[in-house]
Description:
Chain B is an alpha/beta fold. Chain B is 37% helix and 16% strand. Helices cover 70% and strands 3% of the residues of chain C. Chain C has helices at residues 2-15, 19-27, 35-48, 53-61, 99-113, 119-131, 137-147, 151-167, 171-184, 187-199, 204-250, 258-277, 286-308, 317-339, 366-388, 390-400, 402-407, 412-434, 446-459, 464-504, 515-518, and strands at 66-67, 73-75, 79-80, 93-94, 355-358, 362-365.
Amino acid sequence: MSASLxxxxxxxxxxxxxxxVLIGAVLLxxxxxxxxxxxxxxxxxxxxxxxxxxxKWITYAILALAIDxxxxxxxxxxxxxxxxxxxxxxxxxxxxxxLIGPRGVYGHPVLPDFMVFLGYxxxxxxxxxxxxxxxxxxxxxxxxxxxxxxxxxxxxxxxITGVYLSIITQALTYALMLAFFRNDMGxxxxxxxxxxxxxxxxxxNTPTARSxxxxxxxxxxxxxxxxxxxxxxxxxxRVLVAIRDAESRVRFLGYDVTQHKLFVFVxxxxxxxxxxxxYVPQVGIINPGEFSPGNSIEAVIWVAVGGRGTLVGALLGAxxxxxxxxxxxxxxxxxxxxxxGGLFVAxxxxxxxxxxxxxxxxxx
Amino acid sequence: xxxxxxxLTRRAALGGFGAALAMPALRPAFGQGTPIKVGVLHSLSGTxxxxxxxxxxxxxxxxxxxxxxxxxxxxxxxxxxVDPASNxxxxxxxxxxxxxxxxxxxxxxxxTSVSRKSVLPVFEELNGMxxxxxxYEGEEESKNIFYTxxxxxxxxxxxxxxxxxxxxxxxxxxxxLGTDYVYPRTTNRILRGFLKSKxxxxxxxxxxxxxxxxxxxxxxxxxxxxFASEGKKTxxxxxxxxxxxxxxxxxxxxxxxxxxxIPCVAFSVGEEELAGIDTKPLVGHLAAWNYFMSVQGAPxxxxxxxxxxxxxxxxxxxxxxxxxxxxGFRMWTQAVERAKSTKVDDxxxxxxxxxxxxxxxxxxxxxxxxxxxxxxxxxxxxEDGQFNxxxxxxxxxxxxxxxxxxxxxxxxxx
Amino acid sequence: MKNLLLALGVLLWLALPARAQDAFxxxxxxxxxxxxxxxxxxxxxxxxxxxRALPILRALQAGQLQKHADGRLLLxxxxxxxTGQPADASGAETVRLNNRVxxxxxxxxxxxxxxxxxxxxxxxxxxxIFRSRSAEDVPTLQAAxxxxxxxxxxxxxVLALAAAQLVxxxxxxxxxxxxxxxxxxxxxxxxxxxxxxxxxPTLVTAIDISIASIERSxxxxxxxxxxxxxxxxxxxxxxxxxxxxxxxGVMGxxxxxxxxxxxxxxxxxxxxxxxxxxxxxxxxxxxxxSVPAAFLIAAAAGAALERGLIRHxxxxxxxxxxxxxxxxxxxxxxxxxIFGAQNREVASPAWMQGTLMLPGGIAVTQNRLWIIxxxxxxxxxxxxxxxxxxxxxxxxxxxxxxxxxxTMGIRTGRVDALxxxxxxxxxxxxxxxxxxxxxxxxxxxxxxxxxxxxxxxFGGVGSLAGTLVGALTLGxxxKVLEPYxxxxxxKVFVLVAIMLFIQRRPRGLxxxxxxxxxx
Amino acid sequence: xTEPVLYLDGVSVVxxxxxxxxSLSLIVDAGELRAIIGPNGAGKTTMMDVITGKTRxxxxxxxxxxxxxxxxxxxxxxxxxxxxKFQKPTMFDALTVFENxxxxxxxxxxxxxxxxWVLTGEARRRIEAVMEEVGLASRAQDRAAILxxxxxxxxEIGMLLMQDPELLLVDEPVAGMTDQETEHTxxxxxxxxxxxSVVVVEHDLEFVRALGSKVxxxxxxxxxxxxxxxxxxxxxxxxxxYLGR
Lengths: 364, 414, 519, 245
């Protein structure tokens, strides 16, 4: 990687201000559901729409954090992180489907509607256990982690880096998408999972459930932020940056690069999986479209826009790009792709350090 | 050709959203005399834009039409257009935005089943009203959705009956080709059940599914040829979706499959799709719909003129989902007039039993199951990309959204 | 010769019993009725073998036969079908067809055209009868065979006779009919035999022998056809990937908008076709013409992209990747705005339609065949450009050592622009080919981008040979797997296989050093 | 006679046809300081690549004490106690001088131990000591990217010291250094050589002389001559290929 890729965490200067801004933002977010409970005519009332959409953005932000950890710090540009996100989503989706139970259209006690429909007699083995929430959450973390472990091990061991890794991970998520589109896979094919009823006894699509999920996402965001920053501030973080900038030199210092990369890649995949697990109950649907390579690239672009190599940048990017997208798809339904595409081009060209580069002063 | 929604709408949308985001106090107060808002929830980008942009334009056309007539209940109708970009979760998000931020009174939208499934919970939670204009697999019934497209018994079964009739060529073997998603799966399941009841066994049924946008049909078409060469008259029933059709028909043509030998009846190929295909090799292949542009009669001429003058292109075709949108919109205006209100519950009550002389040349009625009674027409592809109607039901068929050929429907929850 | 045949035809007709003429006039009104009536009267007319029926049936087939409400029929040129007298066409409407009528027509015309002076027509007639065979055809066919001079047509007639004999009562005739059909070894023959099997319990053994022999020849043919399908898919991949092999393989630029350049090429084809519509003598050549057009348009777009944006990001392949993704979004939406979201129709010229029968009865679709040829041609063109042109020389020089090339007076910036334009132009040409098998829609490109990257990486970045071998291997493997695994799984398997392969040999099949190899 | 620390025998490396090393043999004893000279393309750097596991030899034996280096990867070899300084000084530009040294500091290298790592006062003292040694104490918090060439040389030497390896491979350490810096470096290396083995590759003969160590002359991938600096300088073959006019 050329030095130009190195966008370091903003040094002593600006860190304090950044932290203040961050805390302010978190507090603001934390207030949203409360404001939503205010009577609709009150001046401070926020609509459910804002709450649910912000909850969604938070999960995106977590995904962005995960990508930034791998890309911004360790220089692993995965174009397949959407796959880990989606797998986490599918895990929780399977749980939600199991919870529907006999309330499905065909009233089958166990089988989800689509299975009844495709003539399944009993539950496929890989669906067992998903009726337990803890198991589902475990899978939401473990499955992405395992997949990342296998792919990462094979790739890093044979020193596949940079563009090659990107292309392989992209092919990975593409292959998964094709596979999940097949109805015979037992994951509901193109329609995926929808019409969820409840989670942990809370009926979904109620303000209570929404704010609960919202806070859960916010907590996960903070946890992920804490985890990532404690990594990046540790010696491991410096090793990762070292790997990003001069991989072979790190080897000559006696560090097993494969191990370090694998560690961060798997961890990042797990975080992405959890994010997906919180995303699905909030948007109420998971289907193979989530695996589409475009989604993964977009997520990477959030990070690039915000400013990679800085955790705050990842968050900034995720929120700003998605807010822009939501706004434009309504205001300029025919033109928003121009705007968004233009933004991506402009940022990569003129803001190599992303939006965050505008705030923290560039180290020479 | 993507026509733009009125700037007024733009500003409304902008204001609405900004308000919702930042200063809720500014949300426009809602009351009598203010415009009636119609949400348009069709993909304008991504894979589904190919089919859905035309429907967006149809709704905008109807808005102009009704405003030209002085609006509904004397109130102006205003469209709020959003782009869910062929992204299913985005459909849900946009549905919520339309209902909560823009407070639309009714929404016209969705094409794919998955997009409908994705927005359904939102419409039920917020008690909105959605008009869904595309033929679909049935197995669904929501009090918040009006289905103005065909249910399986209004398209698939009559089509196969025709294939097995003397005029249709007395097919004894059926190849069911489809894109691998719920509509083809269901339809084919229903057809299997139906064919069994007509004494055609599994040995004489071939079922193949391909991914979306499948572009290499060489192998499958060759297999169909082989399947057809086993001594019984064979026909293809295609539930292949949008994009994959062009390569499929090209392959049919190039492998010399003539309609006289192996007729292919399609449920998702209309005039819009044919516009993208060189139809000469396809003459004689069939499609089953509830409307064809070639239908004779005043209502259709009116519809076609309205469309071509709105889109400012005398060559633009009309198709079945557009007709369904048109019919749905007109029934909605009738219902609002009758209910003297735009409240979802009132309009819903008023919708049931609404009648309209539809462009398809039959009187359609909104049934209590929120589906329409529709005629079934079968058309043969002609060189000019239009359909020559070779068979039609004597009168409109009542929709069965719960097919009797799916055993599970027996013990479904009501 | 011609006259002689006509005379023969007339003789045949005169030889018919007198009531045939009444039968002829009696059969006509049916043509004005419903599809059922039309079909029956068409069959009657065919059976009568009355030459007067020929123009009527031809008009019917061409959709030029008109009818009055009272049932009078009009031939083109407004002559009454029954009397041959001129009549007025006002209020007349065309007689419509359906598949049943078409089937009947094919048979009837077949019987009538057996006496046609034109060999091609007689051949068609033979095939038609083969399809709609009936016992009555036996004598007619025997007569036809007796007087047939053209060997090709004769062969067809013999098969048709066999088909007819199979449904005729004569046991002996049946036996050698079965043998002859078995020898023919076609799918159609097989169909007839299976059909006959149920009807003739006494002949089952003979039939089975014939069927088995057909099966044998078919299985070989199938293998050949699968191979061809694989090659054709491979050639499509090759075309899509060649441009990348240049931009990515040689320059190390990850262009996610590559697919959109392919799409531009397809739309260029569409535009050329529209431009040619007006000029009849040019129309059939619109496709060849659009090859250079597509190349230039895509190349121009490529040059603009390289000069305007990409060159600022050299040495930063990952940024390039993200940036070009944005460019792709813009291009797609731009095309959608200009041409509309609907598919555009690009017709195939006659010489690209239909199936070609290779020796051994291997059926090969024309358009696929041409695409294979085209793919190879483009490959050769690329190789030639890189090997034998000044530009190719400078390009290789810049790739190997930018600084030294510069010191030797090569304007590296210009070379970069040209190289990228060249690669994009090739993508454009791929678009011309794809317009023949796929949708011409704004999303055309997205379906191919990943496959092309896989081909390039699998084949070995920077190696054209690798791209060729890679593309063809993927194509064939895909097609061989398809019948067993289904289209989707086959593709998934291939993708996974490549991923594993790459981690075994990170540099691909044909490892080669390019600027990309270092990144 | 103690077991040699580094033992190369008949080592050959062939890059598509071109012999970079041609059955090279070399023995370095414990605590020995060895200078290696030779014209460009003599295979000096290739030799280092072979020892540190960057390049796999086509033939021959490479042993570090009892370990067969041809089987091990860079990291393992480094952890066995072989440190390397590159001809072109390479470090981590995004990190500060202090952080660069901290990474080099001998400590558990696994991800988890890196995560749990805390900078003990003892470690800090060692790092500061080395920074004094290489004269970068004042630049501790500057990013390596902004150091001058000479300072980068020093920093990399410092990193080498932090690893505290048993065998140091030093490739052209004094390029771009002032005279007194050069002397300082020489003294430093001599001092280190006490308890460790050091192999120095250098063009600067004055520097080599200052080391006052045994000298090996490489040429076309094999050993040409070996002995004291005076001995090799008078060796006609050496004069022929290297010093000659």
